[in-house]
């Protein structure tokens, strides 16, 4: 059994740019093809990837709140991607995302529903196979990546953040979240007259208006039919439209996998994935801190990777949150579903 086929069934999900919980990778998630760990000079790949995330719960400062008005955000990001390997150790990938966000929220005391859809931020990512060790049935690879995200998505919804900033004091720090509409006394929640939105402008914007830079590392360790893989990506954010700057974010995943079926031309692997995303508060005009944008998440879920032939591969994955800590009042992830189809030429 050649190692080439085993590389073909390995899925690496690299997340770049804006990671405020799932929404960070929602805004500019980048799917990485199943062959990303073994570039081959002259090879071209293309494919489609879909990521659907349901935000159906509300949290305030890490505590669950009753979602009386059923505020929610359903986010779909469809990606078309093309990759090219100029040399054996280097792969370049261009990703074009299309976002569709259906939401229901309370705005100005009124329940509002709507949809935001359109082109997201384009990204170009380079992946370099920096180190490789192979001995008998053991294999270890180390990959580094770097890239750029370009401001091609619509940023009109970020203008809402300017309105929110008008409620902030001059020192740029809000003692109590602007959006908070629940108070707690002796462990009990009490609603105030002022309803608050749990879906904000930065959640609905299709782009950031900024040029951002993801950098990271990934690894693969394989022994026989079992393998372990992981990724870590840090995204450096810059100031974007409407003087809004998303906070830098860190995303990672790690998980063991096993080939349930393996032949010379096809295979099926099942992987258990533990992942996390970490992001601070964004900044608005004048460097003022937003207080409803920080998120730390821990998630777990299965991933099925199927190689149909030398030229066709597919995958499906499900993420469920184990723990979510957030600032302010936000809708948070209920689940995420990812699918992808890759063609190799």
Question: How are the elements arranged and paired?
Answer:
Elements: H1 3-8, E1 12-15, H2 22-28, E2 29-32, E3 44-55, E4 57-60, E5 63-65, E6 72-87, E7 90-107, E8 110-119, E9 123-135, E10 138-149, H3 159-165, E11 182-185, E12 188-191, H4 201-204, E13 213-223, E14 226-236, E15 249-262, E16 267-279, E17 295-309, E18 312-326, E19 329-332, E20 335-344
Structural overview:
The chain has 345 residues and is mainly beta. It has one domain: monomeric porin ompg (Porin). The chain has four helices and 20 strands. It has a twelve-stranded antiparallel β-barrel. A three-stranded antiparallel β-sheet has the order 5-4-19, with no helix packed on it. The longest helix has 7 residues. The N terminus is likely disordered.
Q: Number of DSSP helices?
A: 4
CATH architecture call: Beta Barrel
Regarding CATH, which class? Mainly Beta
Please mark out the parts with pLDDT under 50 across 5 or more consecutive residues, or reply none: 1-22, 169-193
* Cα-atom radius of gyration: 21 Å
Q: Pairing-aware structural class of the strands and helices?
A: mainly beta
The averaged pLDDT comes out at 84
Shape call = globular
Largest sheet: 12 strands, antiparallel, barrel
Overall helicity: under 10%
Write down the oligomeric state: single chain
Please identify which CATH superfamily we are dealing with: monomeric porin ompg
Q: Kindly, what is the distance between the CA atoms of the first and last residues, rounded to a whole number of angstroms?
A: 21 Å
Q: How many strand elements?
A: 20
Strand order of the largest sheet: 3-6-7-9-10-13-14-15-16-17-18-20
What CATH calls the topology is Porin
Overall number of structural domains: 1
**Proportion in β-strands:** over 45%
């Amino acid at each position: 059994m050649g190692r080439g086929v085993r590389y073909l069934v390995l899925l690496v999900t690299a997340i770049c740019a804006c990671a405020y919980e799932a929404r960070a990778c929602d805004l500019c998630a980048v799917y990485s093809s199943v062959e990303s760990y073994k570039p081959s000079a002259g090879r071209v790949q293309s494919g489609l990837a879909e990521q659907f995330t349901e935000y159906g719960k509300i949290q305030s400062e890490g505590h669950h709140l009753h979602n009386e008005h059923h505020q929610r955000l359903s986010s779909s990001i469809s990606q078309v991607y093309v990759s090219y390997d100029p040399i054996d150790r280097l792969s370049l990938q261009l990703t074009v995302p299309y976002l569709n966000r259906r939401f229901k929220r309370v705005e100005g005391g009124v329940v509002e529903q709507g949809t935001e859809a359109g082109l997201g931020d384009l990204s170009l990512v380079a992946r370099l196979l920096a180190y490789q060790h192979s001995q008998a049935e053991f294999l270890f690879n180390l990959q580094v990546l770097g890239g750029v995200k370009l401001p091609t998505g619509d940023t009109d919804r970020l203008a809402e953040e300017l309105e929110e900033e008008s409620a902030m004091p001059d020192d740029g720090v809000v003692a109590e979240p602007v959006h908070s509409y629940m108070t707690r006394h002796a462990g009990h929640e009490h609603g105030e007259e002022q309803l608050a939105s749990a879906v904000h402008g930065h959640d609905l914007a299709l782009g950031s208006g900024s040029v951002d830079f993801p950098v990271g590392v990934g690894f693969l360790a394989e022994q026989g039919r079992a393998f372990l893989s992981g990724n870590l990506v840090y995204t450096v954010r810059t100031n974007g439209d409407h003087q809004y700057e998303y906070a830098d974010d860190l995303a990672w995943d790690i998980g063991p996998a096993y080939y349930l079926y393996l032949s010379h031309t096809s295979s099926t692997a099942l992987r258990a994935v533990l992942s996390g995303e970490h992001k601070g508060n964004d900044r608005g005009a004048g460097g003022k801190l937003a207080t409803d944008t920080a998120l730390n998440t821990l998630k777990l879920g299965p991933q099925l990777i199927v190689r149909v032939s030398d030229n066709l591969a597919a995958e499906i994955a499900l993420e469920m949150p184990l723990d979510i800590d957030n600032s302010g009042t936000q809708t948070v992830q209920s689940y995420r579903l990812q699918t992808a189809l890759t063609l190799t030429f």
